[in-house]
Write a structure and sequence with these properties.
Layout: E1 5-13, E2 21-30, E3 33-38, E4 48-51, E5 55-59, E6 61-67, H1 83-96, H2 100-116, E7 119-126, H3 130-143, E8 146-153, H4 160-168, H5 184-198, H6 201-204, E9 206-212, H7 220-233, E10 237-241, E11 249-250, E12 253-254, H8 255-261, E13 269-273, H9 279-288, E14 291-294, H10 296-301, H11 309-315, E15 320-321, E16 324-325, H12 334-349, H13 357-364, H14 366-371, E17 389-393, H15 405-411, E18 418-423, E19 426-430, E20 433-434, H16 439-460
Parallel strand pairs: 1-4, 1-5, 6-7, 6-16, 7-8, 8-9, 10-13, 13-14, 14-15
Antiparallel strand pairs: 1-2, 2-3, 5-17, 11-12, 17-18, 18-19, 19-20
Helix pairs in contact: 1-16, 2-3, 2-16, 12-13, 13-15
Bound molecules: zinc ion (ZN).
Zinc ion (ZN) binds near residues 125 and 272.
Amino acid sequence: MAGRFVIENACVLTQNEEREVIPRGSVLVEDGRVAEISESGINAGAAEVIDGEGMALIPGLVNAHSHIMCILLRGGLGADRRLMDWRLNVMAPGQVAYTPEDAALSVKLFACEAIRSGTTAVVTNERIPVPLAEAMIEAMDDSGMRSVFALCFNEMSPSGKLAERAHSHIAAWGKTFPPSLKTRDEVFEETSHLVDKYHGRSGGRVLVWPGPNIPVYVKPETFREVDEWAGERGLRVSTHVSEDPMESEVGGLPVVQHLAAWGLLSERLVAGHCIHLSEEDIRLLKESGAQVVHLPSSNMYLGSGVSPVPRMLGYGIPVALGTDNANCNDLVNMFWEIRLACLLHKGVQQDPAAITAQQVLDMATRNGARALGLEEEIGSIEVGKRADMILLDMSGPHMHPNHHLPSVLAYQAHGTEVRWVWVEGEPLMEAGRLSKISEDEERTIREEAQAASAAIVERAGLIVPGT
Ligand SMILES: [Zn+2]
């Protein structure tokens, strides 16, 4: 059980309903929850005291859509390739060459970088066999992060026009693509096994959802069965919506309208990307309460397009934020996503007021919590909420001057300012040192990641640029 401690004299970005910022605040944490917030100090008796002088205390960042396992496939392997080329000639064959040990190692490497840059909660989408999924979930639990594992699946390969268009720009099409398709029965067997075994583990810190990967590769009947099954169990459903123009229609309907026609748009649906949308699509997303996750780095990296995020925010859709695959980003640092989300939409719309720093910070905190169905528990620093928080050192030259904390965090922070990280009051980083991983272990993780990645490249026959 997490201890009792107080953070004193920190500038507190509460992210509460009023977006209150307390210039010199104290926050008491008891039993993993925020017990008291004060502008005039807290006499907490024997509680441990952390001096927040010159620091900012903000809610932990929520990465609402990622693919952690791909992290061993970064380092140049996927760079400068089109989506289908990247997906079918790097990601898919690479992932097939992973061992369960590689899967667990990917989580450890991810956790080192993500915790150091202030992420406290993450959703990972993985289309992998059960033994690898188990290795990942165990490692995610060990990391101390709040985590959701979504077991992705495809039922069908691309066919017809979609296959033709993909084929036209992928030389190796049909040679290296491992279909890894699942039948409806396999999907239910594997998902229920993982949900029964892990969902709700560690006091609810570890969650498991189903993940029908991309609507165009999943039969609508199966998608609907999975969605109903998830609804009966209080689970969400993670998917990809309209990332690539090639996948933005199903059976002649825009994908959002296809999902609506099958009754699949609901608060349960956590839809990554949502790039190629019409006004009607946005209206349907808003009416249904579906969750939308914006992935700016990935969308730029793969040239997928620009999601109409300001329009969605204008409709009142609480868009969340994520890093997507760790090998089409290639960072897992949410501060980069915040900065890029701010800048991207201003540039594309030729309007510096298209989106604000406060809106994007909301995406990375409050809206992320809502995407996970945890808006009552995390996403802001408020009495009674779980203490998922980060404390940033604001002393660096790049953080000066500082007049408006949301703007400074969005445009000036690198993520390296994060010094303390807590999930449910449990420290994951203390004064710049990871709590659950020693410096020696961290060095070993880096070395093992390099060696494991090289071995995967060898086994999968991946092409290293420049060789
Ligand atoms: Zn994704």
